[in-house]
């Protein structure tokens, strides 16, 4: 369950900061999973609002993923984690940035293409 939440959050952060080839990433999948784990309950139920730890984890993930390579790694890690949790609500994932007051320029989805 933690993997799904982290995967969705990472997707959001990584899509926003797409990676370019030639730069080595420093973000790891365990970091991404840890940052997004507090969002799991919200992402699987879509009920209420995300907990404060979820939003702070999303914010921390965005700060960690600054280079294009880090963004791509985070996106792929989040996507992989989301794939392990089949009951993630797409509408909850899409609304997460707005509910956390974090600006993103793309829809959040476990179907995100992290290569673009």
Automatic annotation (TrEMBL):
Protein's name in the database: Non-specific lipid-transfer protein
GO MF annotation, one: lipid binding
Annotated function: Plant non-specific lipid-transfer proteins transfer phospholipids as well as galactolipids across membranes. May play a role in wax or cutin deposition in the cell walls of expanding epidermal cells and certain secretory tissues.
Domain of life: Eukaryota
SMART domains in the record: AAI
Keyword Transport among UniProt keywords: yes
Secretion signal, residue range per the UniProt entry: 1-25
A single BP term in Gene Ontology: lipid transport
Alphabetical UniProt keywords: Lipid-binding, Signal, Transport
InterPro entries found in the cross-reference section: Bifun_inhib/LTP/seed_sf, Bifunc_inhib/LTP/seed_store, Plant_nsLTP
Family: Belongs to the plant LTP family.
Every Bifunctional inhibitor/plant lipid transfer protein/seed storage helical domain range: 29-114
């Amino acid at each position: 369950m933690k993997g799904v939440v982290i995967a969705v959050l990472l997707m959001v952060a990584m899509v926003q900061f797409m990676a370019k080839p030639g730069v080595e990433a420093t973000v790891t999948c365990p970091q991404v999973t840890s940052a997004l784990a507090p969002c799991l309950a919200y992402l699987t139920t879509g009920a209420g609002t995300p907990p404060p730890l979820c939003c702070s984890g999303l914010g921390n993930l965005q700060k960690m993923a600054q280079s294009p390579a880090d963004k791509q790694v985070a996106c792929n890690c989040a996507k992989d984690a989301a794939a392990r949790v089949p009951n993630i609500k797409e509408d909850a994932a899409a609304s997460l940035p707005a509910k956390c007051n974090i600006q993103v320029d793309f829809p959040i989805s476990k179907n995100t293409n992290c290569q673009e």
